[in-house]
Structures are given as C-alpha cells and as structure tokens.
Amino acid sequence: MKEAIAYIITKFQCSVWITIVDDPFWSPLVCELDQQLLVFDHTLAQFQESLNCPIKQHQEELLLQAAHLVLTESARLYDRASSMNPATFMVRNGVDLEHFITSNSDLAPEFEVIPEPVIGCYGSPSTEVDYELIKVLAELRPDWNFVWIGAITAEGPAMMDVPENVWLLEDKPYHELPGYFRAFQAALLPYKLNEKTQSAHPVQLYEYMALGVPVISAELPEIIDSDAEVISLARSPLSFIQAIEAALDDENAALKPKYQQFAWSNRWEQRYQILHERFLEMLQSPT
Q1: pTM of the full structure
Q2: Residue 251 and residue 213 in one domain
C-alpha cells in the first residue's frame, strides 16, 4: 500500500496532500507517509471500540500524536485529544436542514395504523441504548405508542419482551426519515449512562428538532453542557414519563419555532464553513 501511494504521488507530482483517517487501524501506514498533512477524525464510535482493546488504544494514540489536525465531535473527546495534541478542533454533529424541512415526504404508511400519541426513537442497535427503559415506559403508559426505527437485532430491541404498544420498524433509508420523524409527537434519546456514553452527542437530536419535535434525553453530559435549554432531561422512568407528558401538552406546540431555530443554528453548512477555514489555515502554514 505504501508503495502504491508513493507511485501515485510521484506520477501526479504531488508536493502536499491531505490524508484524512478515522480508523486507528491505518496508523502504521499513514504515520510513515512523507510530505503530508495528516488529519485524524477522532470519532466517538472508534473511541468506544478502543476502550477494551489495548492494541487499538495504542494505534489511536499514535494518530493523536502524529496528526497535524485532530477533529472531535464532543467536548470530552476534545479534552482527551487536546492533552496529546494541541492542534485539536471540535466540530459537533449537525443537520441537513433542507432535507428534513423541505422534504416532500408524506407520513410513512405505517402510521395509518399506529394511533397517536407516537413517541419515537431512531438509531442503530447498541448495547448503550436502554431498551429496558423503553419497555418500562410502554408498560406505564399503555395509551401511548412507542416506535423504534432501526435494525432489529439480538443486541437491540429484539431482546425486549415487547408490549403491544411498542412498534418495531426496520431500519429506513435516510431519504425516508422525514416521513417517519414527522409522525412523532415526542422523540427519545434513551441512552444508558456509562463510560461509553460520556462523550455521546447523537445526531438525531438535530434531526428531530429540525421538524419541531420535542426531545427527551437521558442525562448525557454532552447534552447537559450544550443543549439543555431546548431539551428535556430525564434520569428515571418517572421523570421520562413526566417530560413526555409535558411535551405532549398543547402549550408545547408554541415551542416548535424555538426547536427549529436551534436546528438552524446547527446546520451542516455552518459546520462545513468552520472546518473549511481550519483546513485553509493548515494548508497555509503546514508543520
């Protein structure tokens, strides 16, 4: 691989190039390349994988020390990375506002048979999602309908003894998500609180808000620090129930513009502009 890259560099007479890597697996290769600007996208997913893997931790540290620019998506990842490399920059997740607001997607057909109120949750199956919490909430409020959108695996919602008012829908293509999220009267971020979720800052937060859907989240540190003004936080099943009740109140509809303004201020276009400026600075003064 190194020889192939060297051949391409020579053939096209590259004097400076940018290598962007997000998997520590590539550290032995990219750390040996010459005349490059190395950018390490230090993602939460890779960090979580490295927690129980000393080899991956070592590879990650090599990249953190060698990179000309380290990108992180949360404050806690930033604190960790910047302690090893001062050229660390935080770029949080964002939202494709046009996709969610201007999409012409009709309500998904599944909601023709799912009565309101609909409490929605979308995500990848993960041991960090508190599926037991969803089950308990559904049992406490059988008059509400809880909808899970995402892959159904043994590690995910399939492990639940599902009450009748929990609807497990398969994963959906990105372009169809607005038609599902529009059906939510409230949305959940039901994560467990542990070492792996200390740095979690789910992108779904902004996608729900783009459609004016109120969000109730577990007390994730990143959300407490940056988004607590527009999000309801809950720790116990009872506090989740109370927060959902408040979200379903008719008076809460007046907050929809506030939610959408929050999403507008967290657009991907805004994130791109910040990142673009940082890349230009790096190109103008490579180290």
Answers
A1: 0.88
A2: yes
